[in-house]
Structures are given as C-alpha cells and as structure tokens.
Amino acid sequence: MNKDSVIHTSIAPWLTVNDGKKAVAFYAAAFNAIETYRLEDEGVFIVRLNINGAEFWVNESADSNNFIDSNIRMILTVSNPEELFDKALKAGAKEIFPVGVDHGWKLGRVEDPFGLHWEIGYKI
What is the pTM of this model? Predict the structure, then answer.
C-alpha cells in the first residue's frame, strides 16, 4: 500500500452463482449496477459491482463445493488486514488461508464460528 493511499473500511457481500455473466447482466438491467472490477482468467470469473455506491461481488462457480454452506461470503476491506485477521483467529475464527498477496489484493480468509467466510484485506 502506498503511503498516500487511504483505505476506507467497508463490508461487501460476495455472491457465488452458477452463471456469472448472466448474473452480472441481470444486476445491471434490474438495478443499474455498474461493473467496477473484473477478473476473468482460466476458470476464474469475479466481478465487483456498484449500485449507487453500494458494492458487492459476483463469483462464478459450477462447483457446488465452492458454495460452502451458503453462496455468500463477506469482503471486509480494511487498511490493517493482518491485525484484524489475527484478532478474528483469537476470537474463535478458523483460518481458511493466511493474509497474502494475489490478483492485486492483499487479503486472507477466515471462517467465523457460524460458518460464514470473511475475506479481510484491501486492493493494492
């Protein structure tokens, strides 16, 4: 993170669906969602959408095992991912993957005691 960057804390839902392109088209048509980020790579389809300032993510997965117990997870954007990641572990969360850098993000994922997955980090 560059010293001039400011990370604003936010929480955004991450929706996992079977047909990502169709879902993105629906959200654009139904809610005027605007695409603000896309990662489309061999077997990966991830899009961040914005509806009047409210952001959410759409991920395509044909693998029902990727749905965990539900088809939603939370993205917690913060400037101090390591600190909150460690705090979550101490509070009873389970590590899914540690904080690291991948696909232009610094983040890690935990599962809370209720089975929900939280990705904690920020876009580099």
Answer: 0.65
